[in-house]
Specification:
The chain has helices at residues 15-23, 49-53, 62-68, 79-94, 130-143, 156-172, 191-196, 207-215, 221-225, 229-236, 238-248, 277-297, 330-343, 377-391, 418-424, 431-437, and strands at residues 7-12, 32-35, 44-47, 73-76, 100-102, 114-119, 149-153, 183-185, 263-274, 300-311, 315-327, 350-358, 360-361, 398-401, 410-413, 449-463, 466-472, 476-490, 499-508, 513-519, 524-531. It is of the alpha+beta class. A six-stranded antiparallel β-barrel has the order 16-17-18-19-20-21. The chain has a five-stranded mixed β-sheet with strand order 5-6-1-7-8. The longest helix is centred in the middle third of the chain and has 21 residues, at 277-297. The chain starts with 6 loop residues before the first strand and ends with a strand.
Amino acid sequence: MSAQRRVACLLAPDFLVQAERRAHPELAGRPFVVATGDDGRAEIVAVSEAATRAGVRAAQTVARARAACAGLVVRPASAALEQSARQSLLDAALALAPRAELAPREAPPFAAEAAVFVDATGTATLYASENGFASALVARAGALGLAGFVGVASSRFAARGVARRLAAAARGAAHAEARASGFLALRPDEEARAIAALPVDLLAPSDALAQRLTRLGIRRVGDLLRLPRRALAQRLGPEARALAARARGEHDEPPLPAPRDARLEEACDLEAPIDRLEPLRFALRGLAARLAERLAVRGLATRRLELALALEGRARDARRIGLAAPTLDVRVWMRVLAGELEASPPRAPVLAVALATEGEAVRRDQLDLFRPRGPDPSALDATLAELEALCGRERVGAPRVADVHRPDAWALAPFAPRAAEARAAGGPVDTARIGDERGTDARPPLAAVRALRPPVPARVRVDAGAPVAVASAVTSGEVVHASGPWRSTGGWWSEGERYALDHYDVQVSDGVVARLCFDWTARRWSVDGVYD
């Protein structure tokens, strides 16, 4: 039998105020308002707590609000900031659950709030309880600069009703301590009683229906549910019947959807046109910092940035900038963005800025039991990319044996730890080989030749076709024992690539065992290896 469906609602009240404070942290604690404009006749649509204590109210004009509060800060309403903040609310939910969706905007008096519904089914096993999950959800929203309240119940309606009640209680509290409990999970057996105690205004009825309910003395949801169903529809209309059905849990709610993509965007409207790069970089830094916070909350990184600039004259400048490796380092982002803007400045003053990206999972590396810990995969990718930029892509990699007969030939392959290569190929990691590399194998060690690159020039005395004496910077003396020659030839079809080499393994009277090489094309001797 499947588990009963549980839904959490993360509710952020006074959302326009929170969106401005998230984009402008310097406004914290200061009296400010969000208005339809910045002139004296503009209407105020949202008021901060400090401005409310100073006597400023919504629907006032800016001139009247400034008369009540001399130090009032007026911020024009920005649809871009509000949309970015709504998406941040969704990111906080997706950081803890695989399914979530933003709630549609409500009509007054709840038009100033934003909400996201989260699939909370089975979260009690991961967070010890549903209250633990709700607490983590509040904390994730707070990490993105959004204060929220969470209600958990069996339906969207009940969860949002609980969250609205918590927000209303916190708004009316006289002390900040009363806001500590910003979450509440209702048990299925107590949902009916809790919903019946909610104010009927939390159902968000239309103005006409709200007036009728007030005249009838219906102030709680329980009062509405006690009315006969047939008489309810006949006297108050189908809207009242639909509200009562939602309160009873009879409304069939579709399951929460999984996110379609991992695209994230931060945007802002500039207060004045910007025609210089320095203030533009300042605005971009704030967008990049907020975008990185959202990626970090969801455990994602990015290797691509999309920059969109709205210019004067209704022009638009869109750019796509690639990064060497997935990263969350804002400093790297800013260096890349600054380089792009300096190489190709905007053609006209900038009015608005948007920075978007598609998040991708950060690459992880499973540590081996028999190896020391290696570099972090993301840091390794960034280091390799910087080396390729400095030295060239063809000069960076891991050495590999070339598929040719020339003894000193070698090749480069993309660098990756050996264990990671085995996992990528789908095969098991050869722990015996790892143990052999660490010297834990019980087999006797074999002599290893240490190649000298470049080979050391040598003078060799030959008798009867075999070396009998060597003089070089590596070894000098009479040859005690010699083996060889071993001849290798190839590349005869090319003047620059042909080779003909004779190799000898010799033991010299000074105790060194070396490998001699005679190059027939260049007619010279060299020491190209020493046995350890």
